[in-house]
Each structure stands twice: as structure tokens, then as C-alpha cells.
Amino acid sequence: MMGFMYLLIIVAFIFSLWAQFRVKGSFNRWSQVPNQNGLTGYEAARRMLDVNGLSDIPIEPVRGTLTDHYDPIHRVVRLSEPVYYERSISAVSVACHEVGHAIQHKVHYPMLVLRHRMFPVVNFASGVAPFMLIAGFLFSSLNLIGLGIIFFSAAVAFQLVTLPVEFNASNRARQVMVEQGFIRNEEERGVAKVLNAAALTYVAAALVSVLELLRLILVYTSSRD
């Protein structure tokens, strides 16, 4: 059983690497394709915020690639420089996805609210879990291993809650982009490629974490027997 579990973890890890490669590849490919309306990522994000009654939320450029995010504490959308300034399919797709999170914040999307409430606990648990597990295995302490598993479970739960948050943000982005005419019908395929590739990275990360949690639980239960 344990051998099969290790095999699953290796497969999931390979899937995770492939997902990261795919998101970079999709982003780079569609970065070379200008959107027909000539919108920059900033312009698309600004319009999407405005039509959803979020004119007070600023948009800031940040360095790096794929460093885009929505900051719910300071209520600001931050776009990587390639997304902020460029007029590509990738730029408007990623920009509108991040605005999707701002809209979730405004309407109190339940899974986003849950993720925000979980964050302080998860931030502590994810920092403590590795030390608990290492100490537990070093000193053959089932109690420490059990505590480590509990803390690690919180981090895994956070990743699982993140999945619907990310998918929902992408769905909101695609809907607004079509309704407001940010993209044309023939451009929807490119948008889907970019957003679906990004979503796969979250799926892969969650899968690896779930399998690692199951492995730890198996180790713990077999040690008790």
C-alpha cells in the first residue's frame, strides 16, 4: 500500500511540474497574440472594476512575471508589468482574473470569506507542521507526528478551499470579458487556454498535498499497530 502511495505522489509531482510548464507556455504563447480591441491589461482591469462598482480600487504594476494578485487587505489589484502594459490575450485574461477576486471580495463570495478566515490559522499551522513532523520522526514520537499531521491538514484544507475561489474568479472574468466586449468570439479560445492552464497549477498543488497527507496518515496508523 505504501509503495503505491509513493507512486501516486511521484505521478502527482510530475503532473505539478507539467502544470507549471503549461501555464508558462500558455501565457507566453498568447502574450504574442494582440487582442483585437487593443486593450492593455490595465485598461481591461480598470473597465472591469468600474462596471462592477469598484472604481475606488487602484491598480498597481509590480515587477516579475505571473506575480499578479489581488490584495484584499489593502484592496488593490497588482498586475505584473507584462500584464499591466501589454495588449495581448494573456494580459487581459490574467488582469480580469485578478479583478474577479476583487468582485468576490465585494459580494462576499462564501469560499473567499472562508479562505480569509482560515488564513491566520493556516499561516501558523503551515509554519509549525514541518518542525512537528521532523521532530516526531527523529524522536519516534507518535504524539508529535499526530500534531504535525493535524497542522498539515489545515494547510491542505486551505489549498482545497482555494480551488473554487480560483475557478470562480476565472468564470467571472470570462463572463464580463464577453459581456463588455473586451474580447471577440474568436478570442475566447485563447482566454480559456490561459485561464485553464493557470487553474491546473492549483489543482496539481492540491493533489500533491492531499496525497502527502494521506501518506503521513498511513505512516502514523501503521506505526500505532
TrEMBL record:
<feature type="transmembrane region" description="Helical">
    <location>
        <begin position="6"/>
        <end position="23"/>
    </location>
</feature>
<protein>
    <submittedName>
        <fullName>Peptidase</fullName>
    </submittedName>
</protein>
<keyword id="KW-1133">Transmembrane helix</keyword>
<feature type="transmembrane region" description="Helical">
    <location>
        <begin position="121"/>
        <end position="139"/>
    </location>
</feature>
<dbReference type="Pfam" id="PF04298">
    <property type="entry name" value="Zn_peptidase_2"/>
</dbReference>
<dbReference type="InterPro" id="IPR007395">
    <property type="entry name" value="Zn_peptidase_2"/>
</dbReference>
<feature type="transmembrane region" description="Helical">
    <location>
        <begin position="145"/>
        <end position="165"/>
    </location>
</feature>
<feature type="transmembrane region" description="Helical">
    <location>
        <begin position="194"/>
        <end position="218"/>
    </location>
</feature>
<keyword id="KW-0812">Transmembrane</keyword>
<keyword id="KW-0472">Membrane</keyword>
